[in-house]
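Take one protein record:
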Amino acid sequence: MNFKAPGFLFLLLLLPSALLLYWYYRKKQNQETLNFSSIETLKQIGAEVKSWRRHGSFILELLLLFILILALARPEAVLPLPTNQIAIAILFDTSGSMMAADLFPSRIGAAKQAAKEFVKHEKGSYPIGIITFSTFPLVRLNPTTNKKKIFSAISHVHAHLGGTAIGDAIFGAMSLLDGYPSAHKVILLFSDGGNNSGSSPILAAKAAKAQGIRIYTIGVGTKSGAYLPGFPIKVYLEQKTLKAIAELSGGKYYKVSSVVSLKKALSELSRKIKIIKKYQDITWYFAAIGLLILGIKFLLDFTVFRRIP
């Protein structure tokens, strides 16, 4: 929680002062003696009120003062808010390992199908750009709201032999989204992990975080792995880097081991990207608590805390 006017927090120093004054007042009051004509009179008045009743009203006053000081400091908290201002960059890993067929019809084929389903079911009209990458990234489509162009660009994505430059692809996506300063910017990264070329994906994720860009990584592949078509080379899903990218950027990692789980992950992702977390003024919340405490004190002062004249 942050405060827009933190200078008012110095008023919290009044609280210990109020406690000391109250303690002094009660001590002085207890030193005074009352003379009763008989024990019966004392019994009629009743034994001394329980400690919590004697101090209850003051405790509520102190709590009320604490809450009001916090309200004066204009508190802010991070709250989830819906948004329609979104710009998305979809990144496809097209390195050789994406040709593996442990997902049908292949890793890259499953990723393409899921991405098309994602675009198809998105009701909002916001720009989506496409980047493919192996040894280096290539912009296949500048951000557009034209779904026909998006579908066409995805259809022309193909895997081929080459390295995996995840970091360079993220930096490329950041540049692609630069033209949308007021939008909530999101990167969807389809890959089977294993960065082996170009910039550090960790540094790229931190740079994206600094610009308020969340990266959602979708790990495409199975735990058992698969052989590359025509090669005696078995490739596996490497999750470590993908998890780190998502965590560092404030996004989420999705592990998918089937086409069904891939579509399910994108369905959840579709909801998540429409929610942003921003600092919001919550002064009204503290003011409401203060009013509630004031009402409780008013009620108790005329019932439980009421003293015998």
Remarks:
- Residues 84-273 form a domain with the Rossmann fold fold (CATH 3.40.50.410).
- The chain has ten helices and eleven strands.
